[in-house]
Amino acid sequence: MIRYVLAVLLTVALAVLSVPAIDHAATVSTERQLQGDLASVDDTAVSLYENEEVTPDGVPAPKRTVAVTFPADSLTSTSVEYVRIERLHETGSLATFAARERGERHRLIDAPIVYADPHRNETVELGGSGETRPLTLTLERDDRGEPVVVASQ
Question: Which domain holds residue 20?
Answer without folding.
Answer: 2-152
